[in-house]
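subagent[fold] <- orchestrator: predict structure for attached chain, return tokens only, no commentary.
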Amino acid sequence: MRGYSGCLAVRLWDKSFAAGSEQARCTLHIRSASVLKTLISGRDIIALVEDYLAGRIELEGDLESLFDASLHFEKLSLRPAEKLHLLQLALQLPGSLLHLSLSGSRSANNRSAISRHYDVGNAFYHLWLDPEMVYSCAYFADDDQSLACAQQDKLDYLCRKLQLEPGQLLLDIGCGWGGLACWAARHYGVSVHGITLSMQQWHFANEKIRWEGLSDRVKIELRDYRELEGEACYDRVVSVGMFEHIGVANFPTYFSRIRQLLRPGGVFVNHGITNDKRWEKSPTTRFINHYIFPDGELTRISDVLDAMEQARFEVVDVEGLRRHYAMTLRHWVKALELRAAKAKDSVGEATYRLWRLYMSGCAHYFDEGSLGIYQVVGVRQQDRHYHQPLRRDYLYHPQKALDARE
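subagent[fold] -> orchestrator:
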């Protein structure tokens, strides 16, 4: 921490500060010498997280500020003699070395991988998501808009990008808890076929459909997108927050199958997270794959667009919503912290700590710019049945665009 002057403080087991002070925005409290001994000798991100989840390390204050220190450590360069000296000092600390042999496993977009993240429990997600249970980036008008309103605006914005009209059939791949499917059916008069691999999402979505009286227009199934049958079956296809599970190697299968399912004149919207360096091996990617998304893999938006074009899509619209996701995550973290006691009762202390850390880190990296999120609109290449509006009035002034068409 020599030379560090940021907003993170480090407090040791004897209450002394290795960096910062009581006034810091975020404090990392190392509660025993053996923790530091293990970290210095092993330098293992999994051991670090396990110490935090077990309470051997505490994080107090604004967790997003923790990640501001990453730049200091990225620039830190120690000579071999300094590293050896630090190791010698660490080995003199009291306590035993804790060797944790935990290895993150990557699976190929299957039900167990999805279940690990989404089947934590509907009650847990209900504590901090909006009433529509939308677990993806909201669409804010300004800093003062509520999360609930911003999520409704996002759902409506997606429907306008899809250019939905009554009587159409919409496929929602990775439909979550059914928020978009029900919104589209209720407000745009379309029929919706939603698919998910999460049992708990499937149960919740079907209850929502029955409660809202939409059983004649919305059907949700437990199904993999690769199991969908038929050709040119759907007028519209949408995928929100699911594409991160696909894996870059599976992009050709994913986009080609969607194109096969899309009717002439149809529209496809892909809403997904990207990053600026592809999914390089790093402590961060190891953390994500071990604890959050076992099958998660991100790549650059240019790779996504190239894969869509290789699958014979014409890309007609691309919009980045990075700042919106940083705002969304801060709403989620705040709501989770306000309901900390209920969250811990629901899923336990360790899961509460993990989600608080994960979402705070994501907010930082969306704000910083290494994470991005894009809505990409595609149509079949050389599709004479598709008529692209000349202007974007249908997105921002939908009534004006409707009047013009009429």
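orchestrator: received. Logging for downstream: Residues 99-110 have pLDDT under 50 and may be disordered. The longest helix spans residues 349-368.
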